[in-house]
Amino acid sequence: IMFTLLYLMSYFCCFNSGSLCQNWAVFLPQTVEALSGSCMLIRCRFTLPPEWEEFLDDSCKAIWKKGWSRTPVFDSSLTGASGSLNIQQGNLTGTLRDKDCTTIFNNMPPRHYDNYYFRLLSPPLAILHIKPHLYYILVHYVIFVLFYFSDSLPKPTITPSNLEVEEGTAVTLTCSAVSHCPILPPLLTWSPALGDTEEEVEANPATSVINFTASHLHNEQKVSCTAVYNRQAGKSDLLYEKILTLSVLFSPRETTVIVDPTGPVLEGSSVSLICTSRSNPPVTNYTWYRDNEIDKDLGPVLVIDGADTSHSGDYHCTAKNDLGEETSAAIQLDIQYVIYVNKAVLEAEAAEYKDDSLHYADVDFAQLQARSEGKLGEGEIKGLASKTGVDSEIRREAPSNGGDAK
What contacts 191, CB < 8 A, 6 or more positions away? Predict the structure, then answer.
């Protein structure tokens, strides 16, 4: 009867407080999870009536039993070489004199769960001599906790779980990972290393904090926190990873004008000017300028059909969103036109110099490729010239007395 009463009192004190629990109580977690092949920390404290504290000395020991059969698996009094007699290897890290029964078990078995029972034991002769009617209370001071061991652990967590900040904001990310084994805490690593980190690995969960200032370069960047768990008895390490995608709000950047198609713009052809920019949120307004005057078109693409000399000039664009705007560098649009050279005229001029040979013909077509604009008349040569006034010329050399003829 006394044993049953104490068992119920101990169980009751795990979830309640009061004068009753200030006398006889054991404080344990309801469940303890651990990684197989690693160690496990069981935090444990107890209370007892003041008149019993005189028996809390170095002769007391903590006993752990397992299963409904109450098989003894750990005796804190077995140390050194005799410690190998314990079925479950470990050590008592708390001091019973301080009512601390915290225990570490090593190399936990795989895929296992069971009820474990704690028992505080004091030499019976001293107790029987002074308080014989209370002997069984202290000897059977017991409560159970459910242990659960697994071959895997949950991924670490990153807080905040979603991040959307403006450029220039100071950001703090915290990575947390379960840490059941204080002598083998997880190794937490951030990638990429965006800033300074601070770690607290002795706590459960273990944490790593990274601090940085948000930049537009961080937008849509994936940041990962990895937790590496070393295990005992030569078992392989385990690695878990959590990824967070950053969202950084910023005004337009890298605003540029692109000409499509590239290359010379021929008179009468079509050309598109495209304004490109990076921003978050996206650009909501584009403004085009020609020779510093606002163009009527406001979209990201300025289309010029049937290009002629009136379209020549310096073009640039401005991209704008809710956070600001940026103006591109100017590009020069130079419309090229077609020129014709009559082959018959050249042959007639050549006939006047029967004795002269044509040394070379140097035609400056503004370094442009010829383009057919229809069927040529007989004897015509087609080329290109710039509207900027660069003339094309045909030069011919002939010997003369003391000089060249052109």
Answer: 223, 224, 226
